[in-house]
Amino acid sequence: MPVLPRDGLARDENRPALIAAGLLAAGGLAGAGWAGLAAGAAALPLGLALFAGASGLGLGLWIIRSAARAGRRLRGDLAQALRAATDPDLPLPAFAAGDLPGADGRLVVLARALAETARAAGGRGDARLAALVAALPVPLMGVGATGLVTLVNPAMAALIGAVMPGTSVYAALARESLAPLLAAAGGGMRRAGVHHVDGRLLDLTAVQLPAPAATAGWLIFADPPAGGMPVLPAAELPMALALHDLAPDLPPACDATPLDRLPVLSLDLETTGLEVTTDRMVSAGAVCMVGGRLFLADVLDMLVDPGGPVPAAATRIHGIDRAMLQGAPPPVVAVERLTALAAGRVVVGHNIGFDLAVLRAEAARAGRAVPDWLEPGGPALDTLRLAARLDPDRPELDLEAIAHRYGIAVSGRHTALGDALLTGRVFAAMIPRLAEIRGA
């Protein structure tokens, strides 16, 4: 993202590991069910109650009925609370009760308590699944489609070191030896030597999750250690199984689509400069969303080689130099991949007009027809313009300032995927207020 303001916007004997694969797939199915639930606006408060536990079901149903009286603000807060339950980078809503009468004010207090319970439970996963995986004598790790760790048991942690869910597997295992193993595992269970970043050669096996259409990723395991491993309590086995979830297939976005069911692609580019007719793309990042939920298994994160120099001034901003682009595909490949992701979705970006203009120019340079979604007037929302509309008295319109305004943690700035994720979370935080204005 430019930093200056701009106008516009296998082996059969590994039975414990196979059992674990089934367990992890079951967890993915549960996540897929949650994704389907969250996709429907009417189901959002009920989903929040389910997160709080079976004992809260009746209470959740009462919240649904009462929310109709409390107004659109409360419904929006409940929807945001559900999204925040599984995305720690999204803030919990304020649940302001100052303008609500007695019974509705008590409803807000109750909703806040449920939201806090959901946030606390969101990172623990199913305790029974955690206990079973922790007890396995097989070093075991789940990895999402983007290389983020989703689960690691004590035996694997002892083998490769402290890798936590939500962090990159490539912080422990060398990409150049692990990536070919994962690619081969798409055709069945595969075993290979993989280098640890400390130089050790580990004998690892990978299998692609036997997943439904809504999940993606791999299970990685090793032979059981000869001396056995101590079993940690399930509470000490954090999970991030939502990192396996893919965005559900929904009807294409249209004017009547409720914001909580809106298919979205949050997009950002890094470039050699700010002139759309002459400067070139060097990286692209995007994440698929439904309403305010980001699907971190449905992302694009790629470098592209425009075939020319990268000015030092640009490198100082995004850290990408000419050497890093050697062997990367040309920019038109990013245009093609983004076009596939953008089908049926509204594109969201911060000063999105700049990014769309750069992509149009790259398509034209390659002699390709400009895709409809890139044309001016296409389905796009600009978080810069939305922020100006929502808070006209706040002059700070850079992405980081807006994120802080909504209580969103800022990380990964001036990388294409990092800025796409931050833009998506800012848009998610805006949805309750946008829904009030829209009357949806």
Account of the 3D structure:
- The chain is α+β, with helices and mostly antiparallel strands.
- It has three domains: 40-122, no CATH class; 127-239, Beta-Lactamase (2-Layer Sandwich); 247-438, Ribonuclease H-like superfamily/Ribonuclease H (Nucleotidyltransferase, domain 5).
- The protein has 14 helices and ten strands.
- It has helices at residues 15-39, 44-52, 57-70, 72-86, 102-122, 127-135, 154-160, 175-184, 312-318, 331-342, 352-365, 383-390, 399-405, 416-438; strands spanning 140-143, 149-152, 190-195, 201-208, 218-221, 263-271, 281-290, 293-303, 346-349, 380-382.
- A five-stranded antiparallel beta sheet has the order 2-1-5-4-3, sandwiched between helices.
- Strand 1 and strand 2 form a beta hairpin.
- Helix 2 (44-52) crosses helix 5, helix 4 packs parallel to helix 5 and helix 13 packs across helix 14 (416-438).
- The protein is globular.
